[in-house]
Amino acid sequence: MMKLALEDRVFSIVIHIALLFLAFVTFYPFWNSAVISFNLGSDTSLGGITFWPRVFTLENYQVVLNDAKILKGFGVSIARTLVGTFLTIAATSLFAYGMSRKELIGRGYYMTFCIITLYFGGGLIPTYLLIRGLGLFDSFWVFVIPSIISVWSMIIFRTFFREIPAGLEDAARIDGCGYWGTFLRVVLPLSGPVVATLSLFTAIAHWNDWFVASIYINNQDLLPVQALLKQTLDSNIASELTQDSAAQSFLAKRQSYTTKSLTMATMMVTTVPIILVYPFLQRYFVKGVLVGSLKE
Question: Rounded to two decimals, what is the model's pTM?
């Protein structure tokens, strides 16, 4: 028993060390980006910035937050995230509730068609032609309508709805509720954890997406902040390719901020808001609220 306890202790120590190393490797790039964003750009160009700013400054953030294009991009991203998340969760949960009903005729065929879309797509060119044909090109709704139904989320919703005790829905029917009343008054209120979790995943997908804007948006006023960040990164790479190291050092000395420092500040500004959402939804990632809701 002592030998077994020693082996368990060694195994626990090894697991903890491995997890700490994995956490460090995962977190360090984000921390280093934050450090660079708070460091003077001209000093960052000298290298050697690792765990702490060498010359602390807020000028990088002042430049970013004073950029009207960035602020407008934030407005587009916030509007897209809120509207897109609400419509996607509403439409997908309603679709999933219908698919969870045993009395739905042909639901096996519908489910097969849905599964096919997870593995096969039309491709970029047919999708582009479809978007243009629907009049969504260079429109805010191109961010929302094409992704309004998520088959992956529908499957999760459907599985969760099937676990709701039938007695609750039968009681609602006895009280005079139809399908709409049962869905809105019984099913959705009991689906808080899955709604919160999938809302978070959907919001993150909307907030972080830049590809849709790069393909379907030409109007600079409709670009979300992630697309603007992508443009900044591309310009940073282009400037590094076209300028030699001596020219970059000369330009860095003439100004207190550089393209890299502004890029890191923009990354922090665009990343922190969505990270702050996690603490408010963390409690929904634990055990569901259905435990003990019905005694039979």
Answer: 0.78
